[in-house]
Specification:
The structure is a single chain. This protein has helices spanning about 30-45, 55-70, 90, 105, 115-125, 130-135, 295-300, and strands at about 80-85, 145-150, 180-185, 190-195, 200-205, 210, 220-230, 230-235, 250, 260-265, 270-275, 290, 310-315. The protein contains seven helices and 13 strands. It is globular. By secondary structure, it is α+β, with helices and mostly antiparallel strands. Helix 5 (about 115-125) packs across helix 6 (about 130-135). It has a nine-stranded mixed beta sheet, with helices on both faces. Strands 1-2 form a two-stranded antiparallel ribbon. Strands 8-9 form a two-stranded antiparallel ribbon. The chain has two domains: about 1-15 and about 155-315, Beta Barrel (L,D-transpeptidase catalytic domain-like); about 30-150, no CATH class.
Length: about 325
């Protein structure tokens, strides 16, 4: 399956806006209030991307999708946070000192791992190190320490072998994914929706789709395969903004890799649905044509689809 990546035009940030901050909601109570809504949405299958307490565009879109499905607004989670005890496995790593943005430099690393305990735990609970630190200002993130985390279903990667395809992928219900679900990606709404045969939404999530140079290919496609922890075959000839000095290279797997933890290959040549190393930028930056989700949303999506699942790209 690695050949699928050789010519892949994948989602790499073309423009990097200023990172999100907690400035608009500085108090602990306000932060928890925002998290309560996002956690309720997340647990109901309507992702707002990173759980950060900020009621921005992604949260508003998830709320509207929930409203259309249920005919009412979501009620904030009564217990938005839970206690998590850091384990020795959490702090064992390995961790990368830093992740260079240059893909040629990335190709020289053994893996594109998390850079800290806080980053690894934050992603497991659908948030960011910044938010995790705000929730636990005295935390040192050592083994046996108890911290507060968003009360969401934790991210668990089904397999860890590079380019490993799940022999029998399962959805969140523990059953084999239904062949009659449909994945729809909306360019104008920067969103992905998975709908069952009953017309109900099984998953909603924010996405990044294409750019002026690599627009989303409107049309109907199908899933070819699902790969977990994928390597990435970088071909600079396929990137309009590639450094002229770059050559073809193999980028190692890892959560901070160009395609994150999952690659869902599509029948549209060179295109796929995949994870991202920058969850706060989903829906806010451009890509090189593919559809990019947070790693946790990509893993969830991978559990809902299988070879042959219909994928529709719309305006």
């Amino acid at each position: 399956m690695t050949a699928l990546f050789t010519l892949a035009i994948l989602a790499i940030t073309a423009q990097t806006p200023a990172p999100q901050t907690l400035a608009p909601r500085t108090s602990s109570a306000a932060l928890t209030e925002g998290i309560a809504l996002q956690v309720a949405l997340d647990r109901a299958g309507f992702s707002s991307g990173a759980v950060d307490g900020q009621l921005g565009t992604n949260t508003k879109r998830a709320t509207e999708a929930y409203r259309q499905q249920h005919g009412r607004d979501p009620e904030p989670a009564p217990e938005p946070l839970r206690t998590y005890q850091i384990t020795s496995a959490d702090v064992a790593g390995p961790f990368a000192d830093t992740i260079p943005r240059d893909l040629m430099a990335q190709s020289k690393l053994p893996a594109l791992s998390y850079t800290s305990v806080a980053e690894a735990i934050a992603e497991r609970f659908h948030t960011t190190p910044k938010v995790l630190q705000a929730l636990n200002p005295e935390a040192s993130f050592k083994a046996d320490e108890q911290i507060q985390v968003p009360n969401v279903e934790p991210l668990v990667l089904p397999v860890s072998k590079p380019n490993g395809s799940s022999p029998a992928p399962v959805g969140t219900s523990g059953k084999t994914p239904a062949s009659d679900v449909v994945v729809q990606v909306s360019r104008s709404n920067s969103s992905l929706t998975v709908t069952g045969a009953d017309g109900k939404i099984a998953m909603f999530a924010p996405v990044t789709t294409g750019s002026e140079f690599d627009p989303l290919p409107i049309g109907e496609w199908k899933v070819n395969a699902v790969l977990y922890n994928p390597t990435f075959r970088y071909n600079p000839d396929l990137f309009w903004d590639a450094n002229p000095a770059h050559t073809k290279a193999t980028i190692p797997p890892g959560p901070n890799g160009p395609v994150g933890l999952v690659w869902i290959d599509l029948s549209k040549e060179h295109y796929g649905l995949h994870g991202s190393p920058e969850p706060t930028q989903i829906g806010k930056t451009q890509s090189h044509g593919c559809v990019r989700l947070t790693n946790w949303d990509a893993v969830k999506l991978a559990g809902l689809v299988r070879a042959g699942t219909k994928v529709v790209f719309t305006e």
